[in-house]
Design goal:
The protein has about 450 residues and is of the alpha/beta class. The protein is built from 18 helices and 14 strands. It has four domains: about 130 residues, Response regulator (Rossmann fold); about 160 residues, Rossmann fold (3-Layer(aba) Sandwich), CATH 3.40.50; about 80 residues, Helicase, Ruva Protein, domain 3 (Orthogonal Bundle); about 60 residues, Arc Repressor Mutant, subunit A. The model has no long low-confidence stretch (mean pLDDT about 85). The chain binds adenosine-5'-triphosphate and magnesium ion.
Length: about 450
């Protein structure tokens, strides 16, 4: 360990000199002092990697020196030397945080071994701290799980934009984590000490949405008995999260665009411009570009919002994250519901991986919560998949037109029949294999075959 700086503390000059010789030869940079007081003086002036001290000295003892060092220079590792037969001193020193102790007379090999070990653990601890910091900075997004490339891209974008006051549009299917990302942007920005105010733009009728966003003056409409502060004002100094921005009606779009461009607005029924310092994050699960084409969303507002757009990938496009997410939810819900579950059996994981998750992470979360609530063993053997885990391709989706006089039950039966027939065909008529393909038990399949009166003649084997 060449170059590491060592401070040697001993009132016995012979011991000091012996250590000096051995340590310098091994490449350490050595400083010698004769008392704890002197040692503290030296430490105050420059940092040391290691400190080796005698315990019994006139003035402050080595253990006292150790204690002060631990507090003020936690990065300096301390090794103590005790006389033969003073095991108690060694124990006290170890309890006070020494990394090791040596019995006098100190053997050269033992000394070097203890030192190199101390430096090694120190390097490892530092590395660990550094890694923790990096992971925290990069991925420590308030419980946001996932390391798929598309998610890393999202984290990088959040990181890049958070600190500015730029408008951000978060897009993604339902349940992909838009809410989480919007909050992460706020909490990683300089505005994190200010408020984050959430408005669900789809939840209010047009007239109420305007007054919700911009506030209103007294008497501006029936029922407006008091002046009311809108969400823009409430979010002053912080972030306004406009959720489901795609739902916002045309007139409100105009007004919103004006605020985004000028930073000022008037309350409903008011005349005076109000100006606020607000960072807007908007989210939508609609394809806004399509909405613009359809004429349902203003193009100018869209372009304004789209300057910094973050697109969250659907879960089916990042299947690698399914196991980590599932594991995360198992732990979370096991703790919440007091269940012994710790992990998923391979079979259960396989069903999670083979599903298309139209409801994305939210749907997975619900499936896992249910599995944990029902679980009474550490291993979750099976999970109940939504709709038996069969997700239909887009073009095979049933149409309302398909519902005939037999109503929904008949329509569902014919659907089930079609799937079972196909599975049996694919399985060459082997029921166990078809059952596996359908994610149900053999007896369940048998029951359904009987119920639907499916005959093997129906099945064309290829
Ligand atoms: N990457 C993730 N890591 C951990 N949990 C996640 C992740 N993404 C989503 N979730 C969880 O899934 C659920 C849905 O996420 P969120 O509410 O952010 O979705 P959303 O995109 O806003 O959906 P919607 O469009 O329906 O509003 C939440 O409980 C959230 O905590
Ligand atoms: Mg949401």
């Amino acid at each position: 360990m060449s170059g590491a700086r060592v401070l040697v503390v001993d009132d016995d000059r012979a011991v000091r000199n012996a250590l000096m010789v051995n340590l310098s030869k091994a490449g350490y940079e050595v400083t010698l002092v004769a008392s704890a007081e002197e040692a503290l003086d030296v430490l105050r002036r420059s940092p040391f990697d290691l400190l080796i001290t005698d315990v019994k000295m006139p003035g402050k003892s080595g253990v006292e020196l150790l204690q002060v060092t631990r507090v003020h220079w936690p990065d300096t590792r301390v090794v103590v030397m005790t006389g033969f037969g003073s095991v108690r001193d060694a124990v006290a020193a170890m309890q006070a945080g020494a990394v090791d102790y040596l019995i006098k007379p100190v053997e050269r090999d033992e000394l070097l071994l203890v030192f190199s070990r101390a430096l090694q653990t120190r390097a490892m601890q530092r590395e660990l701290q550094q890694l923790r910091r990096e992971v925290d900075e990069k991925y420590g997004f308030h419980d946001i799980i996932g390391a798929a490339p598309a998610m890393r891209e999202v984290y990088a974008q959040v990181q890049a934009v958070a600190d500015s006051s730029a408008l951000v549009l978060v897009q993604g299917e339902t349940g992909t984590g838009k809410d989480l990302i919007a909050h992460a942007i706020h909490y990683r920005s300089r505005r994190s000490h200010g408020p984050i105010v959430v408005v669900n733009c789809g939840a209010l009728p047009e007239n109420l949405l305007e007054s919700e966003l911009f506030g209103h003056e007294r008497g501006s409409f029936t029922g407006a008995v008091r002046q009311h502060q809108g969400k823009f004002e409430q979010a002053d100094g912080g972030t306004l999260f406009l959720d489901e921005i795609g739902e916002i009606p045309a007139t409100t779009q105009v007004k919103l665009l004006r605020v985004l461009e000028g930073g000022t607005f008037t309350r409903v029924g008011g005349e005076h411009p109000v100006s606020v310092d607000v960072r807007v994050v908007a989210a939508t699960n609609r394809d806004l570009r399509e909405e613009v084409k359809r004429g349902a969303f203003r193009a100018d507002l869209y372009y304004r919002l789209n300057v910094f757009a973050i697109r969250l990938p659907p879960l089916r496009d990042r299947r690698d994250d399914i196991p980590v997410l599932a594991g995360h939810f198992v732990k979370k819900f096991a703790a919440r519901h007091g269940r012994p579950c710790t992990h998923l059996a391979a079979g259960a994981l396989a069903s999670l991986l083979s599903y298309s998750w139209p409801g994305n992470v939210r749907e997975l979360e619900h499936v896992m919560e249910r599995a944990v609530i029902l679980g009474n063993t550490p291993e979750i053997a099976a999970v109940q998949m939504p709709d038996g885990g069969i997700e239909l391709p887009e073009d095979a989706r049933p149409r309302l037109d398909d519902v005939g006089p037999g109503g929904l039950p008949d329509a569902l039966d014919s659907y089930e029949r079609a799937l079972i027939t196909e599975a049996l065909q694919e399985a060459g008529g082997v029921q166990a294999r078809a059952a596996r393909r359908l994610g149900i038990s053999r007896s369940n399949l048998n029951y359904r075959i009987n119920r639907l009166a499916i005959t093997l003649q129906e099945i064309r084997f290829s």
